[in-house]
Design brief:
429 residues; alpha+beta; Outer membrane efflux proteins (OEP); 4-stranded antiparallel β-sheet; two-stranded parallel ribbon; 10 helices; 70% helix; disordered N terminus
Length: 429
Amino acid sequence: MNWGGVSLALGVAGALTLAPPAARAQAAAPPLRLTRQQAIDTALADNPALQAARQQVDEARAQLVQQVAFPDPTIGGDVTGETSPARPGSGTGHDLGVGLTVPFPTKFHDLGVMGRAGVAQAGFAYTQLREQTASLTAQAYDALLVAVQHHADLEGGRTLAQQFLDKTRARYGAGTVAGLDVLKAQVDLAQAENDLIANQRDLANARAALNRLMGRLLGSDIVPADSLTVPPEPPPLAALVDTARAERPELKSMASQQRGAAAATALARSFWMPDLSLGVQQNAAQGLPTTWTTSVGLSLPLFFWNHTRGEVAQARHRELELSASYRDVAAQVDQDVRDTWATATTALRQALFLRDQLLPEARRAYQIALVSYGLGGVSALDVLDARRTLLGAESQYADALGAADDARADLERAVGRPITWQTGDNGEH
């Protein structure tokens, strides 16, 4: 009986039994196959940062209710004529009163405007975070695609290295090349193996980054359903800048803050509009009929300069600050769109050049070198150099495709909405 096999099986079973439930479920779960858009949709639904931002919007709504709430009334009472503070029953009379403070009606309106501005600001912050999350998820998905493509290219490179080693050994056996050529081919194959090992790290990191954005376990397996392609051309820059000025949530948030600051200024300037205090009190004393006392109070802003130089001036300077900040944010938005548009167009041109010019020439040069080596026309170093050039071109092309897709996602974030891309040249890797 194979006791070693039984021990190994028992060890594996014991390890699975002792493993945490989450780890066992992760090990048994099949790889998740999804497209780029499905990854973005999952991130928008399950990303923890977005869930926190949604709660902040609800917090702002609750704060609005609190800001415009009518003040609670006050109820008070006292006992008079006591022989001792510890003997309330010895009192000869008591007073019971109800008080209510009624703010000036326009203050409710200003408080409501401020509260709604806060809700809008929280909503725009949530929208901005959604756009950033969608862009980051698309870029993380593209990073996984690039790592997968690098793995395929490196697998192909290892196959080429193995074929070249076999050819070199055959020629060495025939006595047409020196043993040094075989050694060089072996070193080249070892380098290809080492590159594949390093690629495993890139694959693991790319999957972990994408899982984190989607709110999944970092070690979960993901298989991308899309492939790297050359994206279409972006729309004209002027149209994108105009769209960004109208759609970017940062600008909308700044405009909402300005409305809230204007309402805060109006509220500060209404210090001379007095709040009305109303009170009704019942007065009861032994041997005397019960009486009632009605009180009316108004706040008197006698020291008005404290208000004009204080909260009014502060609110006005806040408006001026937001006005300057709005202009600065608008300039940042314009620059962001211009930078991302330049990046997108440059990345597209580089991808097209690599696909149509460099990569075909590198493949042709390698084939010529390989055939020539078989005929004894070139050395092993020439073949190895041509193969490295081909692998470098393939790696550059994969990186360029990933950069072009990343720039596309970043440009949509900079514009603040999905873009209708121009129909243009589109080719798969």
